Amino acid sequence: MTDDVRKILQDHARLPADPGMLDPHADLYEAGMTSHASVNVMLALEDHFDLEFPDEMLKPSVFASIAAITEAVEQLRSAQAAA
Amino acid sequence: MTVGATTVDADQTFLAEIRRIADEVAGPNAADVDRLARFPVEAVAALREQRALSAFVPTELGGDGVSFEALAEACLELGRRCSAAAMIFAMHQIQVVTLVRHLEPGGFFEPYLRELAQEQRLIASVTSEVGTGGDMSRSIAAVTPAGDGRSTIEKQAPTVSYGAHADDLLTTVRSSPDSRDGDQVLVLTHADQTTLEPKGTWDPLGMRGTCSPGFVVRAEFGDEQVLGTPYSRVGPETMVPVSHVLWSHLWLGIATDAFDRARAFVRAAAKAKPGEDVPAAQQLSHLHSQLTLLRAEVCSGLAEYVAAWDDRERLSTLRMVLRFNNLKIAASEQAPRICQEAMGVCGIVGFKNDSPYSIGRQLRDAMSAVLMVANERLHKTNASLLLIAKDV
Questions:
Q1: Contact between A66 and B320 (Cβ < 8 Å)
Q2: B390, A55: Cβ pair inside 8 Å?
Q3: CA B124 to CA B139: how far, in whole Å?
Q4: φ and ψ of B189, to 5 deg
Q5: Do B387 and A52 touch (CB under 8 A)?
Q6: Whether B180 and A42 lie within 8 Å, measured CB to CB
C-alpha cells in the first residue's frame, strides 16, 4: 500500500523531490506540498482506495507523511471491513 | 462557557470601562479622526489608562485575565463609536491572543507579556507582503542569521496598520533564507529594533484612523524573539479564526451604529407627525432583519471558536478552516450592505456628513471589510477545500 501512496504523491503532491525516495516519516509539507496540492492528494487517495476521509481526519497531521497517510488509509479500511 | 476568564467580574468591569471609553472618548473624536486620517490618540490613551491593552493577558503575568468573549464584545462596542479605534484594538488583541495561546514557559515571550501589561505596549502586525498575491500563508522575507544569536528581517509590506504608532511589531517571515515560502514563523520586534521606511501615502476611503500606509520593514533582533510554534499551526489554531471573529464583531458594531442612526431618524419622523404613517418605518424593519442575520452569524462564529478553543487539532480541520473563512466573508459583505440600506432609510440626511443621522463614515469604514484579506482569496481557498470536506 505504501507504494500506492507514493504513486499518488508522485502524481498529485507536486513535490520538488521524488516521493519514491522519501523517508516514510519525512514531513511532506516541509518537502514542499502546498495545502492546495494536499487537497488533490486527498481526492486521489479517496478515489484510489474507494474510501472517504471523515471531516475529523481532514487535517494536516493526517497527511503529513507517507507513514501517516498509510496508517489513516489502513484505519479506514479496517473500519469499513468491520462494518 | 467562557475561555481565558478568571472571573465573570473581570469581564463586567472591563466591558463597563470599554463602553465608557467608546461613548466618552472614541465616539466624540471619531469624526475628527476620520476627517484628518489621524491615529485615534485619545481613545488609545484611554484604553491604555484602563489597562485594556493587557486585558487578555493572564493575571499571573500582570494582565486582567478577561475572557475571549469579552474581547469580542469590546470590539463590537468600540465599533459602534469609532471603527478605527475598534480596528486598532482588535488587531492588537489578535497579536496578544496569539502570544498568550502559543506561550512556552521560560524564553522571551513570558517576560515580554509582563512588560506589555506593565507598559501597555501596543502591537501592530505585518502579515501582508508585496509579491505574495495577498496569500498570508506564504512569505518572501526571511529570518536571516546575522551571527552572535542575532538575526535580521526585511519585508516589503503593502500596508501596516498603525505601524508608526506601535511599540512592537509581529511579522510573518520564512524561518530561514533557504526555507520554502510556506515555512513561516512570527517574529516580535520592538520599535527601537525596527525601522519603517514609508512607501506611499495614506488617504483612503475609510478606516482612515488606522493609519495603514505601506512600509519597508527592517529589523535586527535576538533569535529568542522568534515564536517557537510555526505559523502553519498558529494560523489555523489562533491567528486566522481570532482575526475573523474579532473583525466580524467590530463590523457588526459599525452596522449596529448605522442601524441605530436609521432608527433614530424613523423615531424622530414618527414623533414629528403623530399618528401618521412613516414610510421609512417599514424599510427600517427590513433593515432590522438584515442586522439580525449578521448578528446571528457573528455570534455563532464566536461560539464555535470558543467551543473548539482547547481542541487545536479540530481547529486545523478543513471544516473549521471553511467555517471561519465563511464568517469573514459573510460579515464583511453584510456589514456594508446594512450601512447602505440604513442610508436609504434616512435619505438625504443620511447622505449628508453634517447631520446627526449621517451614515457616510460608517458606510465607508464598512466597505474596507471585504478588502482586508480579500474575499476572493478566501473563496479560492474554500473552493479547493469544498472538494474534499464532507459535512460542511
A1: no
A2: yes
A3: 18
A4: -125, 145
A5: no
A6: no
How many angstroms separate the CA atoms of B61 and B4, rounded? 13
Question: What is the distance between the alpha carbons of residues A27 and A63, in angstroms, rounded to a whole number?
Answer: 9
A61 contacts B313? CB cut-off 8 A: yes
Q: CA of A42: which chain B residue's CA is closest?
A: B388
> Contact, B304 vs B323, CB < 8 A?
yes
Burial class (CB in 10 A: 0-12, 13-18, 19+), A50: exposed
pTM: 0.95
Length of chain A: 83
Query: Tell me, what's the ipTM?
Result: 0.89
Query: How many Cβ pairs closer than 8 A exist between chain A and B?
Result: 47
Instruction: Tell me which residue has cell 486521489.
Output: A44
C-alpha cell at B154: 526585511
Q: Closest Cα of chain B to A54: distance in Å?
A: 7
Instruction: Give yes or no for a contact between B250 and B87, defined as CB atoms under 8 angstroms apart.
Output: yes
Interface of chain B toward chain A, CB-CB under 8 angstroms = 137, 180, 182-183, 232, 313-314, 316-319, 381, 384-385, 387-391
Please choose, from the candidates B370, B305, B380, the residue with its C-alpha nearest in 3D space to the C-alpha of residue B137: B380
Question: How many beta carbons lie within 10 A of that of residue B192, not counting itself?
Answer: 9
Q: Give the span between the Cα atoms of B257 and B141, in whole angstroms.
A: 40
Terminal Cα distance for chain B, rounded: 24
Least Cα distance to B54 among B114, B125, B126 occurs for: B114
Confidence of residue B6 (pLDDT cuts 50, 70, 90): low
Q: What is the pLDDT of residues B179-216, one digit of tens each?
A: 988 899 999 999 999 999 999 899 999 999 999 999 99
Chain A CB contacts of B180 below 8 Å: 30, 32
DSSP element (H, E) containing B188? strand B184-190
